[in-house]
Design a protein that fits this description.
about 250 residues; mainly alpha; 9 helices
Length: about 250
């Protein structure tokens, strides 16, 4: 298993596209947070800062998911999966190693992004800020919002891995991963369901997942479950996609 993890780390760290995507995912939220904190004259409390960082981190989450999708689908595109499976006939070993490496890198980079963004914003803004105290209007603490952001990001990275196993074509896998939360769910929730006067929008997984990091998540919103319920529902979707992808790779030809 250690050799498999080392091999997957080499694959992940040597591809130029991964370096570019990780660079954008790392730099974008920090730069925008610094700019907003530097230019704003409005009063910010801890919840406002947390919402700013979480609102930018969803793009980071999608980019990490794209890296995971490219890493898996690209193996099939360029037939590099064949020597991998030839060297390690138990297919679950390299698949698990790839997922572990991607999630560990995602978690580390996200932690650095959130920490740097928080420190930069709170040092530039006037006021007293706390990671653990609840907001003025009943919002959750910044730490709770950041935990939700981490859950979202790791979930999207895992979905990217599952989609890469299912679709096996890099452009199609990336398109599916981006279009589902950004376009398809919006069409379903805002057009189809609204036209039919239905509240099925609350049962769309990314609708729940993308709001996990918002400190003032409206628990009474008809389209949102509770933070815990929405997280469980989102991860049920994550696990289902991942299992389906692994089953396909395990049972079909490389």
């Amino acid at each position: 298993m250690i050799d498999a993890i080392r091999s997957e780390w080499i694959k992940l760290s040597t591809l130029t596209v991964n370096k570019v995507l990780y660079g954008i995912a790392f730099a974008f939220p920090i730069v925008v947070t610094v700019l907003v904190a530097s230019l704003t004259s409005d009063f910010f409390d801890s919840g406002d800062v947390a919402d700013l960082i979480a609102g930018l981190a969803w793009l980071t989450a999608l980019l990490f998911g794209v890296v995971a999708a490219i890493g898996m689908a690209g193996e099939f595109n360029y037939n590099t999966i064949r020597p991998t499976f030839a060297a390690q006939p138990k297919r679950m070993t390299p698949l698990l190693a790839k997922l572990v490496v991607q999630l560990v890198v995602t978690a580390v980079l996200l932690a650095v992004v959130v920490a740097v963004s928080w420190l930069a914003a709170t040092s530039l803004l006037d006021g007293t800020f706390s990671l653990t105290e609840d907001g003025r209007f009943g919002e959750s603490s910044a730490l709770t919002a950041f935990a939700g952001t981490a859950a979202l990001t790791l979930g999207v990275a895992t979905v990217g891995f599952g989609v890469g196993n299912l679709i096996r074509n890099t452009p199609a896998a990336v398109a599916a991963l981006l279009l589902w939360p950004l376009v398809i769910e919006n069409i379903l929730a805002r057009l189809l369901f609204a036209a039919l006067d239905l509240e099925w929008g609350r049962y769309l997984p990314f609708t729940q997942g993308l709001t996990l990091g918002i400190s003032d998540r409206a628990e009474d919103d008809s389209e949102l479950m509770s933070r815990l319920g929405g997280g469980v529902y989102f991860y049920a979707f994550v696990i289902a996609i991942t299992i389906l992808g692994v089953i396909r790779t395990h049972r079909s030809d490389a």
